[in-house]
Amino acid sequence: MGSAVTVALVGARDVAKELGKKGTQSDITLYNTVSEGHAVTIVEPTQFPEKLGPLLYSLAMADRFLLVVPALSREVAEAAATIDLFDAPVEILLGGAVGEGEVRKVFKGTRLESAPAHPLDLPKIRAEMEEWTSAPRPGPVLVQIDHAFPVKGVGAVALGLVRRGTLTMHEKLRLFPTAKLAEIRSIQVHDVDVRSAEAGSRVGVALKGLDADELERGQVLAPEGSFPVGPAVSATLSKRCPYYRGKVGPGAQLHLLNGLQFVPAAVVSAEGDSLQLESDRPVALDPDSPTLLADLSATPGPRVVGRLAVQGKR
Fold first, then answer.
1. Which residues pair with 261 in a beta bridge?
2. How many other C-beta atoms lie within 10 A of the C-beta of residue 271?
3. Residue 300, preceding bond cis, omega within 30 degrees?
4. What is the distance between the terminal CA atoms of the chain, rounded to a whole angstrom?
5. What's the rounded Cα separation, in Å, for the pair 175 and 199?
6. Please, which residues have CB within 8 angstroms of residue 23's CB and are 6 or more apart in sequence?
7. Which domains does the chain have, with CATH numbers?
């Protein structure tokens, strides 16, 4: 395969289907298109805003964001507040009832205030996506798993993204945050068998040494020793969501996101923006992935608390 890019499209549920062929569907839906060796995967947070998780997963998977603004709604406001905590480039697509001036005013003080904005134009978006690619990510291989299932005669198959390095057939990797090891039996990129897959590629991998029921979203395949694993996290709340109205203090029951790991975490202690967190299960924090804190019980206002700078784990 040639180049590839993953795009999160949020704010409307009737746009992604016009840009690609529907693939894997759960709380998120993936749409795919391949043209002249360039593969585009569009991730739609199908069960957002009912659930916050699908929005976070979609953004964590993507190289670029498209925010559709059909109207200035609570859903759009929460999506924008969450996008502001990530680093990927964002483009705003305006519905017919929304003006650019209105959007700039509402998003003032966030990075969306200066993001490119123009009326929703499907041919224009298709042409842009043909030019987009994922950024090179050298280093040891890391595969982020988002779905998994058993295949008769093949065994456990994981679907995910190669976030770093090159995935190669027959190499042996650890399934973080577990201690289990797996061998890469085969690799497919958009249903084509390949012997290796570069960073940015969406892959289906058959795994030797694991059963499908041992796989779940959020796990990562990487070389042994890639991450420390444990439930305790020391972090600083480096960027707060200005619209979050809750309090982050000892005893607060929140959720921690890193990559596609999204786990309950309690605040053990807090001194200003310095936090000690304890998750309800071991996590493997990738320092190259944004780490966010969320409050699923927050009402009203957005459920995202802010972004964390992780100091260490034990």
1. 258
2. 7
3. yes
4. 40
5. 18
6. 29, 30, 31, 32, 41
7. 4-131 (3.40.50.300), 142-222 (2.40.30.10), 229-313 (2.40.30.10)
Nearest to 308 by CA among 260, 243, 237: 237
Residue 153 burial (CB count, 10 A): 4
Please state, in angstroms and as integers, the Cα–Cα distance from residue 268 to each residue in 232, 253, 265, 306, 313, following that order.
9, 10, 9, 17, 14
CB 175 within 8 A of CB 120: no
Over its length of 314 residues, how does the chain's per-residue pLDDT go in tens digits? 579 999 999 999 889 999 999 999 999 999 999 988 899 999 999 999 999 999 999 999 999 999 999 998 999 999 999 999 999 999 999 998 888 999 999 999 999 999 999 999 999 999 999 999 998 888 999 999 999 999 988 899 999 999 999 999 999 999 999 999 999 999 999 889 999 999 999 999 999 999 999 999 999 999 999 998 999 999 999 999 999 999 999 999 999 999 999 999 999 999 999 999 999 999 999 988 999 999 999 987 899 999 999 985 44
Q: What is the H or E stretch that residue 184 is in?
A: strand 181-189
Q: What's the 3-state SS for 28-86?
A: CEEEEEEECCEEEEEEECCCCCCCCHHHHHHHHHCCEEEEEECCCCHHHHHHHHHHCCC
**In the numeric block, which tokens belong to residue 269?**
């202690």
The amino acid present at 87, given as its one-letter code, is D
